[in-house]
Give the backbone structure.
Amino acid sequence: MISIVLIGTGNVATQLFDTFLNYKQLNVLQVFGRTDTSLAYFNSKTATTKHYNQLLKADVYIITVSDDAISNVVNNLLHLNGLVVHTAGSVSLEALSPLKNKGVFYPLQTFTKGKKLDFKTIPICLETQNKKDYSTLKIIAETISDVVYNINTEQRKSLHLAAIFVNNFTNYMYTIGNEICEENNIPFDILTPLIQETALKINTLSPNAAQTGPARRNDIQTMQTHLEQLRSKDNQKIYKLLSESIQKKYKNL
């Protein structure tokens, strides 16, 4: 059995906590949080604390705080002997350099409050400084997920950047699309099959091969009509920038 302490109480911590509880070989000894309110969800299920000097002895300590708070947390964990890992995609392993045993346990997924996830399908990217620590993290990862990768810091940073484009930026496009629908009294649900088909398409085609639309076929008249329809200057700039980028990409194809 691997003993675990979670440091943080946000979406990632909650999802990991609920998932770990499903496996007898993973024992969440304690959750650290800054306030009684943030710890309320965990109080009835495991030990909790608001003080670093009260952290229990564990095999692995998983930091699940925001990226810019990691360094501050690390400075309060120098007394620990267990393996300390963070869950951030864009933060290097060296961010934990003051610690004796360190690693990264990065679940590549978007975490939204109240939205339960099946970790079996979530890729988990691991990095450590030594084989023993990697073996420990691999046991945890393979217990909860069927998709585990050995990814170094530079690869993980690039992966996180790619994820911003395919997830965060894409979702913002949904937001713009939703606003256009609302402005014209159209239910956004009409677009759901299109969104799903676009996502499913890359299971059999490369994103490059799957590209369609007026910019892909260099339909200048349609693109000009769209620009005139857009009420927001910012959305016009986004449409124009993306269209020009697609045109450039497929100019000679």
Notes: The two ends are 56 Å apart (CA to CA). The longest strand covers residues 26-32. The chain has two domains: 2-151, 156-249.
